[in-house]
Amino acid sequence: MTSPLAPAALETLPRTAASDVKKHGWRGVMQTVSHHGKVLVTNHNAPEAVILSTSEYRAMVAAIQAAQAHVPATLDALRKRFDERLASLNTDDAGDRLRSLMNQPLQLDGKLKAGSSY
């Protein structure tokens, strides 16, 4: 069974045709799901649905929730860095510092001045 963090491409999933679902019934489909954790149901060879076992579904939901838990912390850190940089523009000497920087001769010596690296 593959991890929900590395989802399988539809082409690699075990397949069953919609007509086989009718022929073998729900029990036959669930045997495939029990064995592989998931099954792709096709209709005329076109993907139509993916049936997941409850353990696959729970693992997928847990992975999504874990990923979403990191988003606010990452955004808060980014917001803090931005606010710190923005605050430097609100100081009394910000205009003087900018004019001083702009009046300096530009000598890059093949290097790029950008971001927090200068």
UniProtKB/TrEMBL annotation:
Q: Gene3D superfamilies, alphabetically?
A: YefM-like domain (3.40.1620.10)
Species name: Oxalicibacterium faecigallinarum
Q: Which family does it belong to?
A: Belongs to the phD/YefM antitoxin family.
> What is the recorded name of this protein?
Antitoxin
Q: Which domain of life is it from?
A: Bacteria
